[in-house]
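User: My notes are a mess, but here's the protein and pyruvic acid's SMILES. Can you give me a structure?
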Amino acid sequence: MIIGVPMEIKTDESRVALTVGGVAELIHHGHTVYIQKGAGIGSGFPDTLYESVGGKILSTIEEVYAIADMIMKVKEPIEAEYKLVKENQVIFTYFHFASSEPLTKAMIESKSICIAYETVEQADRSLPLLVPMSEVAGRMSVQQGAKYLEKPIKGRGILLGGVPGVQPAKVLVLGGGIVGKQAAKMAAGLGADVTIMDISLPRLRQLDDVMAANVTTIMSNQYNIEQAVQESDLIIGAVLIPGRKAPRLVTREMLKLMRPGTVLVDVAVDQGGCFETTKATTHRDPTYIIDDVVHYCVANMPGAVPYTSTVGLTNATFPYAIQLANKGWVKACKENKELLLGLNIIKGDIVYEGVAEAFELPYVDVNTVFENEIAI
Ligand SMILES: NC(=O)C1=CN([C@@H]2O[C@H](COP(=O)(O)OP(=O)(O)OC[C@H]3O[C@@H](n4cnc5c(N)ncnc54)[C@H](O)[C@@H]3O)[C@@H](O)[C@H]2O)C=CC1
Ligand SMILES: CC(=O)C(=O)O
Ligand SMILES: [Mg+2]
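Assistant: No problem, the inputs look usable. Here's the predicted complex:
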């Protein structure tokens, strides 16, 4: 198979979809890998290193899309890339379709096969291709939150851990999954007074068992959230209902109850966000203020630490990529239930229910599509 790795062109996104080791392994299995010039530089992989293991460098993004049977990316195609995606081409990347109707419609029109990292799902319902980036974003959310709590950038002016004789900041984490757990660990490690809310009691039990004494677990409901936001300094949005739009837990009205300078970090922004006032921002211009409340809503947080994120991400994606390359998408997805759940759009049909529901578009059972594929 011919695999293409374009350079990420989302603002300040420096991750790349394959490491040099990954390229070497694909070539070892008989595949050809084209990498766009400079695609790996931000993650520490210069073109010469890719070439040293047999990777082929192409100068432009157009050439990469034109030649490849399968495109491996990190972030969803952005508008400039829509027209480059070809019929029957496999696109293996994060899509977060439920948060973007234009992207969904463009990929339907492209007639490509869209396999979304974020919906590949294991039998225990874990999301193996989201986990490593959620670990990064969870840890980063506290780093960013601490920074934006500083007064010169309009935060409350409070140090997360306080100092002896002074109370620490209060951190509220909405959603106690991967992002939430990592965020709580970091905030607790810095000495903050941390509360995690989740709707899953078993999850709250697990967290209670492993967290430090300065972390409290509370059931997530509208009343508890409304109470907690009033006394929190930093609120981290970390909820997820896989493949669907994030639930809006913090309303615009609730901002009025918060203290001026409260910082909201909405990690769930890539699924539409869990604050009503969330709108996606970029690393270059990461925050905005509404009602004196600082919002940080960067949809590709791990992109800012590509040395860590590229390796973390590709450690997880590579075992699936090699199956897609060796077997082709139909056989790979039929034989691997985890990959099957990654299929979101196939040649114009939406085969992931949450995405169809988000935009009230028709949903097609993936098995019907498979029957047609095999009949061809
Ligand atoms: N902005 C960025 O750069 C990044 C964003 N993310 C996003 O972060 C979000 C969280 O991801 P993970 O932690 O991996 O998901 P996860 O599935 O591990 O955890 C989500 C948690 O939210 C809980 N939840 C669902 N509804 C809730 C509610 N109403 N109240 C409280 N909790 C609720 C679930 O029970 C679950 O424990 C996702 O949208 C993911 O795409 C992940 C990585 C990077
Ligand atoms: C998960 C995701 O969207 C990211 O790592 O950018
Ligand atoms: Mg994202």
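The chain has a mean pLDDT of 97.
User: Great, I'll file this with my notes.
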